[in-house]
Amino acid sequence: MKIKTLVLMALLGTLCSTSFAQSYQNQLKNKYLILNGASCAGLKFNPQATAAAWQNEMDCSRGDSNTDAWRITWITPEIFMMTEVIRPNEISPPRNDLYKIMSIENKTVTVVNYWTGWGNHEPDLQKFRIK
Questions:
Q1: CA 20 to 30 Å from 118, out of 12, 13, 43, 106?
Q2: pTM for the full predicted model
Q3: Alpha carbon of 105 to those of 3, 24, 85: distances in Å?
Q4: At residue 100, what are phi and psi to the nearest 5 degrees?
């Protein structure tokens, strides 16, 4: 009896985490996330949440278009990696950003951004508002 209960609890936990994964990706589809404290800087997700464009504050406030494009790879239900798709030059590798979604509540997305570059930097908690 105890083994059946443990197996059922494990199965339920797996199903719940899978639904959260799809839910986070679904919630970001076609959304524009504006960084807290900014008027327009942020991420514009495509309709599948598999690609995004980063919009810089200076560019969007002047009405300029931005060509900073990123491919999104969902690693787990709440973790995704963004990889730069426009090659800045012939010798540099693509930049990567690693995010973990902590919550999506009331049009606020809270993420942890893990540093993937040179040097040592602590993970950065960031908040975005959904437009």
A1: 43
A2: 0.77
A3: 36, 11, 30
A4: -120, 120
